[in-house]
Design goal:
The protein is of the alpha+beta class and 173 residues long. The protein has a single domain, classed as Aminopeptidase, CATH 3.40.630.30. It has a seven-stranded mixed sheet, with helices on both faces. Helix 3 links the parallel strand 4 and strand 5. The chain starts with a strand and ends in a 9-residue tail after the last strand. The model has no long low-confidence stretch (mean pLDDT 97). The structure holds coenzyme A (COA). The site of coenzyme A has 23 residues, from strand 4, helix 3, strand 5 and helix 4.
Length: 173
Amino acid sequence: MSLSIRPVEARDNAAITRIYAHAVRHGTASFETEPPDEAEMARRQAALAAGGYPFLVAALAGTVAGYAYAGPYRARPAYRFTVEDSIYVTPQAQRGGIGRALLERLLDDAQARGFRQMIAVIGDSAQTPSIALHRACAFRLIGTFEAVGFKFDRWLDSVLMQRALGPGGATVP
Ligand SMILES: CC(C)(COP(=O)(O)OP(=O)(O)OC[C@H]1O[C@@H](n2cnc3c(N)ncnc32)[C@H](O)[C@@H]1OP(=O)(O)O)[C@@H](O)C(=O)NCCC(=O)NCCS
């Protein structure tokens, strides 16, 4: 089946909202506990676009099967060259190469926009797929915050991984 990775469009919002809602309800990648509705997801997407951050979708035979975006890592201005990535692939399409295709394109797009570091903040140290995906895309493990989240009646760690974009910290922007 044909996979295309492209910038997000307004018509993708319903599918993105559904994919994220499933991850919030059933998974530990997100530390949210109540899925945001379509209006809130559209608002978040507009804020990312206004900030100049990349937002991509993966369309499999014309249907949105996953999405990825880079957003601000932290709000204070000195962090402005550092982004945090988020990637979600619908469960039926996982393990088919979509996550890697999204992340590779996101790395290119973020670098092209002048960002210098990408951080992955991975909810739950038992989150093998996400840790393995980031490692496969040359992120290195920075460390683990222990028991900083509580969801589904258990404590969750937060795993930090990092990858330089382009020259990273070797030159000034
Ligand atoms: C993490 C996630 C985005 C991966 O997407 P995916 O499309 O399934 O990943 P891919 O098929 O592109 O896999 C790429 C690589 O990641 C690793 N990987 C992915 N899933 C894995 C799993 N279940 N176990 C071990 N390694 C895995 C492998 O190295 C894989 O390469 P390979 O297939 O050549 O071995 C997907 O599992 C997902 O949406 N999970 C729920 C949400 C989430 O955790 N998002 C990350 C938030 S930071």
